[in-house]
Amino acid sequence: MNRGNPGRAVVLAGCLLAAGCFGASRPPSPLRGYRVLIENHDSLSDYLARALARKGFTVRRRVKGGSPPTAALVTFTFRELAEPPTVWLNARLADTRSGAIVAAVSGPLDALGSSAATRAQSLADSFAAHLQGHDVPP
Predict the structure, then answer these.
(1) Is 43:50 a contact under the CB 8 Å cutoff?
(2) How many separate domains does the chain show?
(3) How wide is the angle at C-alpha 105 spanned by C-alphas 92 and 73, nearest 5°?
(4) Position 6 in a domain
(5) What is the CB neighbour count within 10 angstroms for residue 126?
(6) What digits encode the pLDDT tens for the residues 68-103?
(7) pTM of whole model > 0.90?
């Protein structure tokens, strides 16, 4: 390096520092490497399976032994007793071996959309947001 140009060294050091910050690794997503198991065949489950597949998830519709880590979809609703009552749609992805919840999404049913297709897309978008900054699972 040219000792007569200290500004150049400062710029180079700044660039290396910035590259290190942008390239810093993030903690791995809890969904990385998981297959998603959706066994139900109701309209929400069918739309959600398609929406997750479009987001890059590998979706299975039935149990298959000896497969890579798999997270089963569990959905349920909950009604608050407050006035006015709010119905929440809850979706959980649980590891099929340990039962641990690897991702969870909840939202007021009305806010997720008026049809099963729009609700499924909202859920898929939320699950994919868990992966922001991470690779989509294989």
Answers:
(1) no
(2) 1
(3) 25
(4) no
(5) 16
(6) 899 999 999 999 988 889 999 999 999 999 999 999
(7) no
Angstrom distances, CA of residue 27 to CA of 8, 30, 54, 117, 135: 34, 9, 24, 32, 11
Helix orientation angle between 116-129 and 43-54, rounded to the nearest 10 degrees: 40
Q: What is the residue range of 100's domain?
A: 35-129
- Which residues, 6+ apart, have CB-to-CB distance to 11 below 8 Å? none
Could you give the CA distance from residue 138 to residue 131 in angstroms, rounded to a whole number?
A: 12
76: β partners: 90
Q: What is the DSSP letter of 98?
A: T
In this structure, the chain runs to a length of 138
Classify residue 10: in a domain, yes or no: no
Buried b (16+ CB within 10 A) or exposed e, 92-107: bbbebeeeeebbebeb
Q: What do you get for the CA distance between the two ends of the chain, in Å? A: 44
- The model's pLDDT over 36-63, given as tens digits with 9 standing for 90+, comes to 999 999 999 999 999 999 998 999 999 8
